[in-house]
Specification:
The protein has 12 helices and no strands. It has about 280 residues and is mainly alpha-helical. The chain has one domain (about 20-270). Helix 11 (about 225-240) packs across helix 12 (about 245-270). It is elongated, with a radius of gyration of 19 Å.
């Protein structure tokens, strides 16, 4: 259960009709960022839990590097992509619960009485989760480097990895926002979280697709977009600049983002009670 340490929701000054979409978005995003920063549980646990699994699996599954055809001699090089995606899944719950809380408290309906545009409200609400995703990505990269992970793509690849990780985090945050708009309660959003983790486990998170022996598992993992998100992140560490892997990763992340924002826009039109 996520604990909200901010006792009262902050107010957002109703924007004047002449205020640009960017200014409206930044106003809502500022509130979202401040609210997220006040909730220490959202900053600490989602960041530490993936690192704990990274440390455990990095040692327990290191023998996998002896399998013929395994792409690297250091299993942590292969595993480092998992915390980025796992952290993005936590970001989705953070974004969804925060938005659901505003729905339950009636704050969203109060904003509907202002000239605030729906796009600014939706994207701005995800601002806190996006900042959290950025901090997580930086921490995961630093921990990976400290544990012996090396980037075959060099410094430029590390920067692209951070960019890809942010796109993935924003995509999952948008998905969390969609769930909040559809269900309207934080409990319902949190109830979806185990299903997100199932998609991670039914992917190439532990082994490359071509080394998975169980046919049914390999087929599911091959159809799972998470496998390609992991593959893009992983390619920058192991193989360097792999255009196909990066195109698939950015493509699936952007597809999730566009679809989630599109459906969220439609859901917001029915959720907002404009008077």
């Amino acid at each position: 259960m996520v604990v909200d340490l901010a006792h009262e929701p902050q107010t957002v000054r109703p924007p004047a009709s002449g205020v640009s979409l960017t200014e409206q978005t930044l106003a809502v995003a500022k509130r979202a960022i401040v609210r997220t920063s006040r909730q220490r549980a959202l900053l600490v646990f989602p960041m530490i839990f993936p690192l704990i699994l990274f440390a455990i699996n990095g040692s327990a599954l290191s023998a996998a590097t002896k399998i013929p055809g395994f792409p690297t001699q250091n299993y942590r090089d292969f595993l480092i992509a998992v915390p980025f995606v796992q952290g993005a899944m936590f970001v989705s719950i953070t974004a969804g619960v925060d938005l659901a809380r505003d729905i339950e408290s009636g704050f969203l309906n109060r904003l509907a009485l202002t000239p605030l545009r729906g796009e600014a409200l939706l994207i701005g609400q995800l601002g806190g989760a996006l900042v959290l995703g950025t901090l997580q990505a930086i921490v995961y990269m630093l921990v990976g480097l400290a544990s012996g992970v090396s980037f075959a793509s060099g410094l430029g690849g590390a920067l692209v990895l951070l960019l890809l990780a942010n796109v993935i985090a924003f995509a999952f945050a948008s998905l969390g926002g969609l769930l909040a708009l559809r269900f309207g309660t934080g409990e319902a959003v949190q109830g979806i979280f185990p299903l997100l983790f199932v998609t991670l486990f039914l992917s190439s998170s532990s082994l490359p697709l071509d080394l998975i022996k169980a046919t049914w598992f390999r087929d599911i993992a091959a159809c799972n977009p998470v496998s390609y998100l992991l593959g893009g992140l992983r390619s920058l560490v192991i193989s360097g600049w792999d255009g196909q892997a990066l195109a698939l990763a950015f493509g699936f992340a952007l597809a999730i983002l566009v679809l989630a924002l599109g459906f969220s826009q439609a859901a917001m039109k029915t959720r907002l009670a404009r008077r």
